[in-house]
Each structure stands twice: as structure tokens, then as C-alpha cells.
Amino acid sequence: MSWKVTVFARRDIVQAALIAHEDAWDWDPEIVIAGSEIAEDKPEDWQLEAWLDRKPTKADQKAITNLFEGTAPKLNIEQLPDEDWVTLSQQGVEPIREGVFYVHTPEYPPLAQPGVRDFVIPASQAFGTGQHATTAGCLAMLSYMKQQGVRVRNLADIGTGTGLLAFAGLHLWPTARAIASDIDAVCGPVVAENAANNDVPLGDGSGRMAMVIAPGMDHALLEAAGPYDLLIANILAGPLVELAPAFARAVVPGGSVLLAGLLETQEATVRAAYRRAGLRLAARMVRGDWSILWLRCRGGGRVRSSRVGQLPEWSKPW
User: Fold this and answer.
1) 317 Cβ contact partners less than 8 Å away, ≥ 6 residues apart
2) Helices and strands: H and E segment counts in the chain
3) CA 180 to CA 178: how far, in whole Å?
4) Cβ(100)–Cβ(119) under 8 Å?
5) Average pLDDT of span 60-78
6) The pLDDT value given to residue 105
7) Contact 228/252 with Cβ under 8 angstroms?
8) Nearest alpha carbon to residue 258 among 143, 147, 163, 173
9) Mean of the pLDDT values across residues 202-213?
10) CA 184/CA 217 separation, integer angstroms
């Protein structure tokens, strides 16, 4: 992407803008935004960054400005070198240790410690190297779920990015079948490469993972592979709310849903949506400004038990 628009403001203002972005259903998907603190020693000073593959038009600038209430913020517009901004933003990140997992880029050696699963996830065009608080929190929550005796035969990772959370699920429940999905087509080859680098077998069957490109649950393979004992979704609060009924239908009675990607200020709205869909909170944790939620489905007999090993023939090349 060749252009960036930056707005500097207080944390609460940027967070409010991020929430407004999630509610803007007509948002141009070609404009990618993110919010972050500027420096660790200044936690209240934040920036909102928007990346485009074109010079921002007046309409683009207005769309970004409209995310902020009150006085229009100053937009700092700059042209960037022709480089992969996602990869650059992830370079130099240090390894993380969460639960039974150690996640690092190829620049770092594996931990090679008994009882710890090493994952090497290079900086790539997909989100989810493990360093973000939501991804790291999901790894910690998955480890906790395993400790609590959760059993999983069939799992789905919606919005998988690099595939890391699906890989983690298969490590914790090695006889399970997994399917991962993402709306971004670039994730397909990224997940395949990461699976090969981490000895995660692809395909249908016990201990294997399939991959599809799809928005939400909108794919025949996701329908055919369900229902699930565990559904993971580390995306954004807006889509999480919208997908609550679909996620509830896709999980077996007593099954688990792990949600992340929501700010703590958005938690009440997300939990209300899932409560209406028949899920109840089992556990939660907060990492920085982000909430990670483990929900369980009460169910009512309307969902069949998981159908492990019954993917259609056309899916099996994966």
C-alpha cells in the first residue's frame, strides 16, 4: 500500500473512532485502519492509521474524518515506499510465551522446552503472528480451556489470518479435525506455508486442517464440516455481533465459542448479542484494552452432534 493517513489523539478518542469504523457498514474495504499507542511510556497518546493503495481522495479523507466526533482532526497524509506495510510492522517483534505455546519469527530460535509447543510464524501479509494482545490472549485461553477439561473433536477458526490459533487448537486436541477460514484471499497461501513450516497436516480427517476463503460462515465447506465443539473468532466487535446467531447455530450443545478482537469497552454489547443467541460466559480475561471471552452454548437439541470425517470429496485436496 502506497499512502498512509495518520491522526494523533488521546486514547479514548482513537478508540471511539475504531468503534465508529466497526459500525460503518458502508466503509470502503480498500481503506485499512488500525489504532495503537504511540509509545509505551505514553499510554494515553494514540494514533489512528489508515492505509490505502491510492492517493486519498476528498471522499476518503471525509470518511476518515467522520469517524471522529466534534472538531475535525488534522489528517497527516504521506506517500509510502512500495513495501509491504504489514510485514514491516511485524518485523523485530520479540517471541511470546502464552500458556503452553511459544511463538516466534524465524529470526529467533525455538525455545525447545519440554511441554512447550514452538510455532514459527514469519512476518507476513496476514494478521496473527501472536504478538498482538488478542492473539496472545486466545493462546492463553485455549490453554486454560484444555486445563478445564474441554474436549474437542471438531473445531473452526474464523478469521484465521496466519492459521496460528487453528494450529494451537490442533496441538491441544491432536485427534480433532479443524477448518480455518478468512475473508482475505492472501491468507490461503500464507496458512499453507505456515502449516508446512510447523508440521501441521492439511486436509480432511483426524489431526488435519482444511482452509477456505469466505466471509463469516458463508461457505459450503464450513456448513458441511459443522457443527463444532469449538469455534474460534479473533476478528472485530462489529462482525462478532453480526455473526452471533450463525456461530450459535454452528456449535453443538455444550460447545465452546472463543471470541477476541473486541475492546473491553465493547464487551457488554458483544456479550449481549451472544446471550440472545443462547451462549453464556464461561471465562474472560483482559489483555491491555482487549477482552477475550470463552462462551458455552446451552443448546436445545436443534444442533446435531459433530460429524467428524464427513467432508465432501471436493474439499479433500486441502
Assistant:
1) 203
2) 9, 14
3) 7
4) no
5) 90
6) 84
7) yes
8) 143
9) 92
10) 14
